[in-house]
Design goal:
The protein is mainly α. The protein is 69% helix and 10% strand. It starts with a helix and ends in a 9-residue tail after the last strand. It comes from Pedobacter lusitanus.
């Protein structure tokens, strides 16, 4: 989590400085694509603040109103971030692009745009490298895409996607800017803004899908599920695990419910001891499983005649 915070703080500082310089350069050069890039960086700055706020809220201890804690706050604010990327970043950039394609304006001196874009590539690229290194430490042997899909910490892949989209957007703007001035085609400035907007919309849809899935509740992996069943069924007195229900309350907290059938000759005290044993064994193996509910239930065998 500390690594993820470091990547968020680095992205926050970079995006704030870059947004200011992009707006200044866009105003001097009369460039719609540069203004769109400034909006993109400003939205990214707000997104980092929301992620940091979500991380802080998710650490709030459980109370009577939220007995399982506030861990899902992070998932909620991650979903809000994806909506902001779609609405503010993508929507405004697409609007700016369409307006400037329909009514192209003469381009001003592009020198400052080139300077700012070059600096932004360095700053955004540095932030992307920091985010990639942080994510690389937690993905293990998984491929990048599988690690993103399986990740329960949206703050890790959100920053990665944002920085990646930022760097790609900068190259789109730079290419269109060079071609626009070289070929004297002012419409390319609007096209660059439109392409950046479409890029942000695509990124936001991916992030919204992943954040929505986490917000609705994702369970543990099939491999962990099988291991849980094996651990539980090795406890003396347990006959069979009938049902395993789990959900991530936060990237570091899992709620688990087991429906278990015990031997018929066990009394209430012995069943309670077996439940304590189950909980102790599971916590020993799975550090993230904080809440464990074990529900005894009668097991009815099906016989065929």
């Amino acid at each position: 989590m500390a690594n993820q915070k470091a990547s968020i703080y680095s992205a926050l500082a970079a995006n704030l400085l870059i947004a200011i310089t992009k707006f200044i350069a866009g105003a001097f050069s009369n460039s719609a694509s540069m203004i769109s890039e400034g909006i993109h960086s400003l939205v990214d700055t707000v997104n980092q603040l929301l992620l940091l706020f979500g991380l802080k809220r998710s650490k709030k201890p459980a109370d009577a109103l939220r007995p399982f804690g506030y861990g899902k706050e992070l998932y909620f604010y991650s979903f809000i971030v994806s909506i902001l990327i779609f609405g503010l970043g993508g929507g405004i950039s697409i609007y700016q692009g369409i307006i400037h394609i329909a009514n192209p304006e003469p381009l001003g001196n592009p020198t400052w745009n080139y300077v700012v874009l070059s600096l932004c590539v360095v700053f955004e690229g540095t932030s992307l490298i920091i985010a990639a290194k942080a994510f690389n430490k937690v993905r293990g042997q998984e491929t990048w895409w599988n690690a993103i899909v399986k990740s329960k910490d949206p703050s890790s892949f959100l920053v990665l996607f944002e920085d990646g989209a930022a760097v790609l957007g900068l190259f789109i703007v730079m290419i269109c800017l060079v071609l626009g001035h070289g070929l004297n085609i002012p419409e390319l400035d609007g096209i660059a803004s439109l392409l950046v907007g479409l890029l942000l919309v695509g990124v936001s849809l991916i992030l919204a899908r992943e954040s929505r899935s986490l917000l609705l509740g994702e369970g543990i992996s099939p491999a962990s599920r099988e291991k849980l069943v094996a651990i539980t069924e090795q406890v003396p007195g347990v006959v069979k695990v009938l049902t395993v229900v789990s959900t991530y309350q936060s990237p570091e907290e899992v709620l688990l419910m087991l429906i278990v059938t015990f031997k018929d000759d066990l009394d209430t005290h012995q069943i309670n001891e077996a439940i304590d044993h189950i909980q102790a064994e599971i916590r020993k193996e799975f550090k993230l499983i904080r809440f464990i509910i074990v529900q005894p239930e009668q097991y009815t065998r099906q016989f065929k005649f």
